[in-house]
Amino acid sequence: MPSFSLPPIHDNPEGGWGPSTSSIPDQFKFKDIPYAPFSKSDKLGRFADWNDLSSDNRQAVAGLPSTQTRAVGPGGRRRDGTQAFGSGTASAFAYFHVEDESSFSLVDNKAAPARRGTGFNRGRGGTRGTPSYSARGSTRGTRGGPAFRGAVNARGGQRRGGWRDWEKNNRTRESSVVISPQWSMLEEIEFHRLAKLRLEVDEPEELETYGRLYAYDKSYDRISTKTEKPLQLVDRIKYNPTTSDDPIIQQLASNGVAKVYTTDVILSVLMCAPRSVYPWDIVIVREGDSLFFDKRDGGPFDTVTVNENAADPPQDPAPPNPNNPNEKAAIPETASINTATSLSLEATYINQNFGFQSVIETSPPPAVDLAHPNPFYGPEETEPLASCGYRYRLFDLGITEDEDIKICVRTEVDAYSPGQGNPKDGQGLVTIRALNEFDPRAQGAGGAPDWRSKLDSQRGAVVATEMKNNSCKLAKWTVQSVLAGADLLKIGYISRANPRDNTRHVILSTASLRPTDFAAQLNVSLANGWGIVRTVTDMCMKMPEGKYVLVKDPNKPVIRLYSVPAATFTGEDEDVGVAEGSEEE
């Protein structure tokens, strides 16, 4: 019977798997073989170049003993000055598979079908359902699909930014008011701190009602894109004075009804401050134990913003350099109707005229006179008044029963809905607003779809886009409606008759919303808004009597409280003096 003997086992005294270095023959240990270091990003080169006639390389790579092998110094060179194998340029011994590629051929020469939704089509137009690339830096779907700003990355997601972002104008905005060196900053609050505030407020007490209301024309609720109606210019007067110029508020303040007095327009801006992007300012005057929140004449409260919360909002052209008269404006003259200022004036014009046009001034149904006539319409006025009702309401901001912090707010309603109760008792009240479309292809459109093609069939997409691009504006309208106690909020969808003409408009549709339900859709927290109002009130109550300005930073989510001289904003001379002798912060 043959014997069986085990082969020798070489144990690894160093520990670990595999043979130890002591069991490997010397000719395979690759001792003193020079080789340059490399990284993972380098191209793979040849292991050995047999075309090289020098014996050093062959013997060193093959691991053969050689008396000419020398140590390698820094830079991949040997101490004798010669270069180590593979330590030259990346292409010195790089392997290029040109011959292999040229000899390769497909059996099936049929073109592969295009994958939908991946990458760009480099031709002039894309196939159906496939996005095409345009020089404006946007991907546009076929058949009137929405435009999406920015490029698409390799993973199929949308990349922030767009084509030639580095060439776009600076987004720096100017402050809504010139900060004078005479002003002293007292407080600074970031928006993320404001968003954490919360205060529950009970139902308000109604003090007085003034004005006359007309019935809302329900035929506007049945308008569609196929039965559009032109927007008309209606000559009416509507007053919206600041708090200190209101004679009713002055009368209530003399009686000590509340500690804080303001209007719904000013209060809504403060309650929706964390959503705001554009700059604004509120003038605060403390007289004794009373606070008055005022607005400046010609300030941001008198106009309506457009696409304030869009990723790429409308811009104003940069002012020309006075040292270079030949310098051109940043925005061409053909696009001047789509600048931020022009669109704001256009939106203000649309809101006013839509509210005037959508009411029935001839009976039936009859106009409803509230408890008192319009307090701002004097006997010398001859132009007809617009439908407007003023409701002075009292809100209690006290946290405990012992605190006596009440705020008197002048709210406005625009019409009443027939058959919804008695407007004199606060039933069936309506506020009317309007959204405007200018040019879906213009800068600042915010990727809005074409209303004429999508409003009837895909209203949800249009509403979602407007809620994203005009979050602050819609939130302020909703808060104003809730403060006024309106039962309905009517929002009209108004577009230009021609995208290049900002003077003619058509009404495409009208939406009827419950303010409280719409606030829930917009994620508007009235408790958070009241918390902000209470915080600002406490902050101003700690200050001595005088005049203050609450300023929203034009480029940062921050509000600042300044102490200003008593003569600030009181006349043209003071304003000019402050503007000339001050510089922007």
From TrEMBL:
GO terms for cellular component: eukaryotic 43S preinitiation complex; eukaryotic 48S preinitiation complex; eukaryotic translation initiation factor 3 complex. Residues 314-323 have a biased composition (Pro residues). It is found in: Cytoplasm. The keyword Cytoplasm applies. Residues 300-314 are annotated as: RNA gate. Keywords: Cytoplasm, Initiation factor, Protein biosynthesis, RNA-binding. One of its GO terms (biological process) is formation of cytoplasmic translation initiation complex. InterPro entries: eIF3d. It comes from the Eukaryota. One of its GO terms (molecular function) is translation initiation factor activity. PANTHER family: EUKARYOTIC TRANSLATION INITIATION FACTOR 3 SUBUNIT 7, EUKARYOTIC TRANSLATION INITIATION FACTOR 3 SUBUNIT D. Belongs to the eIF-3 subunit D family. The RNA gate region regulates mRNA cap recognition to prevent promiscuous mRNA-binding before assembly of eif3d into the full eukaryotic translation initiation factor 3 (eIF-3) complex. HAMAP family: eIF3d. This is Eukaryotic translation initiation factor 3 subunit D.
